[in-house]
Amino acid sequence: RKTPEKKDEL
Amino acid sequence: MNIFRLVGDLSHLLAIFVLLLKIWKSRSCAGVSGKSQILFALVFITRYLDLFTNFISVYNSLMKVIFIASTVATVYLMYIKFKATYDSNHDTFRIEFLVVPVGGLAFLVNHDFTPLEILWTFSIYLESVAILPQLFMISKTGEAETITSHYLFALGSYRALYLLNWIYRYYFEGYFDLIAVVAGCVQTILYCDFFYLYITKVMWGKKLSLPA
């Protein structure tokens, strides 16, 4: 399970 | 984008506009904690610095701009335009007791030791506790206007919906952000007492008042 580099949430 | 996140974002947006409209229409910010609003402004400004560094979507950028602008507008209305109606003697929570430890924690526990990432982490931690001055104010005065409790309900629901979104994303996208999830749980737990009062009182047409 990874933490995405790009934050797409608000 | 899933339904939980979308409804969560809309709930967040609704909360901010309910508060702005309440202040604007009544020409008064009585019962609203200016300190919580300053913290939320700080949350949005430190989190959305990535507006300039990476583009996700028009929706994402637009929401970020709206969140920053509307919260700064709320702070402006409270501290400048309708300053005379601001209930400062009931808004006595010491925000340095939140900002300083949260800042320290953001330095120590983050995904990556870079300025933007530390500020993002700070913002996530700070958001989880930013409502405390408002809840403290309500506990001091023992009551809240109905419109203020609608604001709090929408604001609290937003993070609870995000928790569902993270469960969904974990199963269907393999997405998992421990920092956001832990902070989101803390944030939602802080609202539990309020949710209980909202459901047992405000939804039945009664004013939110605390038992003596």
TrEMBL record, chain B:
Keyword Membrane: yes
Listed GO biological process terms: protein retention in ER lumen; protein transport; vesicle-mediated transport
One protein family per Pfam: ER_lumen_recept
UniProt KW Transport keyword: yes
GO molecular function: ER retention sequence binding
Gene Ontology cellular component annotations, sorted alphabetically: endoplasmic reticulum membrane
Swiss-Prot/TrEMBL keywords: Endoplasmic reticulum, ER-Golgi transport, Membrane, Protein transport, Receptor, Transmembrane, Transmembrane helix, Transport
Superkingdom in the source lineage: Eukaryota
Membrane topology type: Multi-pass membrane protein
Annotated family: Belongs to the ERD2 family.
Protein name, entry field: ER lumen protein-retaining receptor
Organism field: Lingula anatina (Brachiopod)
Gene behind this protein: LOC106163604
